[in-house]
Design a protein that fits this description.
With 362 residues, the protein is α+β, with helices and mostly antiparallel strands. The chain has 14 helices and twelve strands.
């Protein structure tokens, strides 16, 4: 394992490369307000972060990543367009895999620019490809925005679409919801019994649990309304399943998705953006003819991304996380911008993993 001094030296060199591309150096505090992160990710973040209590500042978390504080900083007082770079420690609890580091250095680059999102995507990807060019890595790309557009275009209720959007990053739950909304599975007996009652608290003066009688009755009514809806059409469902299965090089993936768009026309604009990005990547010297693309890429690990996503992997070391990864997170700027928003894209590098691979590949 590389020593700390070598990691810091490599991190400084990588950051200098991003500075040369126009990134302004920023250094967010190690302690971050827990409320912001809990608001974004829910209580699940507690299983992955180190949490402490400060008498004056309340609940705090050791920095689990840089993107959220950089977005907050930019939305508060950043000029436009803007480019930032940083390097420093992040902290992630590891309760399952003891071999995974719980503290490591990230080096990152973030672009806030509303003029040409496709060009910004290409800029970030090309810069990261340049930083890892001496390693034998496989580049993977995806686009969460295409899947989001498909869900938003489904001919079903707003409540169902909102539920699917919430669980895009949880493939098993997403699939279970699709099967339920398509009436591919039978209604579980407990839910069927619940729907047939006038209300679970009817005739009882005791309320058990944290939800009030009104909240429970409201939930039951929502379930009844959903049960009365027609299923998602099989044609739409098959098209969505075909879309999620697309895994090809960029040109062939685009061709397949254009065919699928005949039955899912809501993805057409997202595919136009995909095509513009491919052209911008090619203009920066990226070999898009052999660049891998997968619609479902990033769905289990990139929760705040909502567009282009990418990662660089060592195929000879499948046990390692991505050496570099990133993507577009426009919605995050909207969530943290208190009404303001700006298209944004960025990524991070792991200098420790780069040094480790150099030792084994040399």
């Amino acid at each position: 394992m590389p020593n700390r001094s070598d990691i810091q030296t490599r991190a400084a060199r990588l950051r200098m490369g991003f500075e040369a591309a126009g990134g302004r150096v920023v250094d967010p505090p190690l302690l971050q307000p827990a409320g912001t992160l809990l608001g974004l990710y829910g209580e699940d973040i507690r299983a992955r972060a180190y949490v402490t209590i400060d008498a004056l500042r309340g609940e705090q978390m050791l920095r689990p990543d840089f993107t959220v504080p950089v977005v907050q900083m930019h939305m508060r007082d950043g000029a436009e367009p803007a480019r930032y770079t940083y390097s420093g420690e992040v902290f992630r609890r590891q309760e399952i895999d003891a071999d995974r580091a719980n503290e490591y250095v990230q080096v990152g680059y973030e672009v806030f620019d509303r003029d040409n999102p496709a060009a910004a995507d290409a800029e970030v990807f090309a810069l990261f490809a340049l930083q890892v060019r001496d390693l034998k890595l496989r580049a993977a790309t995806g686009d969460i925005g295409i899947l989001m557009a498909a869900v938003q275009g489904l001919n079903t209720s707003a409540r169902r679409k909102a539920a699917l959007m919430r669980h895009i990053w949880r493939p098993k739950r997403f699939r279970a919801l699709l099967d339920r909304y398509a009436h591919r599975v039978s209604v579980p007996a407990p839910r069927e019994a619940l729907l047939s009652t006038d209300g679970v608290l009817t005739g009882s003066s005791v309320e058990i649990g944290k939800r009030s009688r009104a909240e429970i009755d409201e939930r039951i009514e929502a379930l009844r309304e959903d049960a009365a809806l027609p299923p998602i059409a099989e044609k739409e469902l098959l098209a969505l399943e075909a879309l999620m299965a697309v895994r090809e090089t960029v040109p062939y993936a685009l061709e397949q998705m254009r065919d699928i768009a005949v039955d899912l026309p809501s993805i057409s604009q997202a595919l136009n953006s995909f095509e513009a990005r491919a052209a911008a990547l090619a203009a920066r010297g990226v070999d898009v003819e052999s660049l891998d693309f997968e619609v479902s890429y990033g769905r289990t690990s990139m929760e705040y991304y909502d567009g282009f996503v990418f990662g660089f992997y060592a195929e000879t070391r499948p046990d390692l996380p991505p050496i570099a990864s990133g993507g577009r997170y426009d919605a995050l700027t909207r969530q943290l911008g208190q009404g303001a928003e700006i298209p944004a894209v960025g990524g991070v590098l792991r200098p420790d993993l780069m040094l480790m691979l150099e030792e084994t590949q040399s």
